[in-house]
Amino acid sequence: MNKQRFGQYFTPKNIADFMCSLISKPQSARVLEPSAGLGVFIESLKSAGFNDIKGYELDKTLKNKKLSQFIRYRDFLDAPLKEQFDVIIGNPPYIRWRNIEEKIKAKLGQNPLWQNYCNRLCDYLFIFILQSIEKLTSKGELIFISPTYWFNSTHSQKLRNYMLDHGSISDVYLFNDSNIFKGVSGSFVVFKYVKGAFYQNLTLHTFKQTYKEQLSFGKKVINDFFTISNIPQWKRNTTWSLKNVPQNEQLLLQRFEESCKASNEKSFLANDLQSKKPYKTIGDYFEIANGMVSGLDRAFNIEKMPKDLISSLTALEKEHLIRVFKAKNLLPFYHQGEAYYFFLTQDIAEDKFKELYPNIYKHLLLFKEKLTARYNYGKALSFWKFAFPRNLKLFKSLEKRIFVPCKERISNKKYFRFTLADNDVFALQDVTAIVRKKKCLEEIEYVLAYLNNPRVFAWLAIHGVVKGEIVEFSERPIASIPYRCINFDDYVEVAIYQQIVTLTKKLLATKDLSLQVLIEKEFDKLF
User: pLDDT-derived band of residue 264, with 50, 70 and 90 as boundaries?
Assistant: First the structure.
């Protein structure tokens, strides 16, 4: 229970020893552990010869009598700490805002650092990073282990900017999807941050083995088990990519962004030049919508009904079937397969529903217990209705739309699946939709080809929301993609644009993916 309450994921001893080995300060350094837990870091610090150690732990059930001289059992965020520390090390708690206790939320609401750099999308670990940096001496070292998601999420931008304003990261040890914490999947890093130091480059250490708890993390492991590369120091107002991008690729992406900027400067959106963004993005020209949530797909999927019920569907029941693409149906450019779901939005009494939709009622009745137990998003929810028909107005619009899976693994491929869908197709929760705004003058086929272009893949693999080898396609990361407008006053650009549209329409009609090579050549001309 306390694990969830306090965001506790106890650090293996070998990881704590390894992190202590990264300290470059002398053994006389003043060291703080702000979330001591069972005391594993205190033990590792003592073994490494450090004695001036102070620890804090909120969970009093973890009291360790052997370490009582080092650990104070109270909230680090409330601690009246007047001194500064040469080293702060540890494993801060990870708790999303919605799971934080109300009394802790109240404290955060009064914390100036939280007020200035965080919001309700942020994690509890953010305040530990911020407050720890405040407590460091000049050239003091912060060494934490944490998930990687905040390196590239939009709501972490203020935290990242704060860190770069006050110092820089010297080293990152990336463990990718290794299961460092038992029963916890995800991508984790150990990072070393130095306050008041502003390095031009940082060292990225990528773990190339399968993590094992018995590994002894000394210098030998650093040399033998990590791929080491120097990468440019991260900049303000950008995501922090955990990839070693070759210089030639960096140059290509830079040209990609510059071309998007130049195209917007020439476009009809002269009034938008006051924007602080270096270029216009997909979010400026397109609505981005997450798919609807049924709460129990197999109940609403008509294909899951017994054949005798399907053949008996009345005309009225058929009127309430919607055409659906799920992530598994999406391919680059076009779809493969589809499904039909029963979908009713009007409020109706159960006896009336049974009368009007007898076959659907008979089928849904089999799932009534599970449907009734769905999360209801704070609304009275009949068992025959979708749990959350979000973005319904957009899906009912007359615009064709582009679909992409909400999450895509890129470890074994170099493309994403942006798929064209007709204006009568709906997306479910594993799909995100992209729909043109009125100010977008380019045809949807151009946009489809653009999003499937290798430049967009490369840009997202570095600047998107990437967790390990998983790229996320929610609204914000899609909205941030640079967009290359067409200058319709430039006949050369227009000719290229028209050829891209023509080739894309032909690809969609024939499903001949060899045409993609020709499309990419046209984009090469455009860029």
Answer: low
CA angle centred on 231, ends 229 and 236, rounded to 5°: 150
Residue-averaged pLDDT of the chain? 87
pLDDT at 409 over 90: no
Higher pLDDT, 36 or 84: 84
Alpha helices in 122-218 (DSSP H): 125-134, 157-166
CA atoms within a 13 Å half-sphere pointing along the CA-CB vector of 316: 10
State in Å, rounded, how far the first CA of the chain is from the last one.
55
pTM above 0.85, yes or no: no
Mean pLDDT on 485-494:
93
Nearest to 467 by CA among 145, 202, 152: 152
Q: What whole-number distance in Å separates Cα of residue 71 and Cα of residue 56?
A: 5
- Alpha helix (H) residue ranges in 332-427: 350-356, 358-365, 368-372, 392-395
Burial category of 249 from C-beta neighbours within 10 Å (exposed 0-12, middle 13-18, buried 19 and up): middle
356 CB-near residues (< 8 Å, 6+ apart): 316, 348
Contact 328, 374 (CB under 8 A): no
Is 165 exposed, middle or buried, given 0-12, 13-18 or 19+ CB atoms closer than 10 A? exposed
> Where in the chain do CATH 3.40.50.150 domains reside?
2-244
The architecture (CATH level 2) of 2-244 comes to 3-Layer(aba) Sandwich (3.40)
CB 215 within 8 A of CB 221: yes
Q: Tell me which residue of 283, 323, 332 sits closest to 303, measured CA to CA.
A: 323
pLDDT above 60 (res 270)? no
Instruction: Classify each residue of 385-402 as buried b or exposed e, where b means 16 or more C-beta atoms within 10 Å of its C-beta.
Output: bbbbbbbeebbeeebbbb
Which token pair is 17? Answer: 């020893």
Query: What is the pLDDT at residue 79?
Result: 81
Report CA Rg, the chain: 27
C-alpha to C-alpha distance for 250 and 237, rounded to whole angstroms: 17
Please tell me what DSSP assigns to residue 11. P
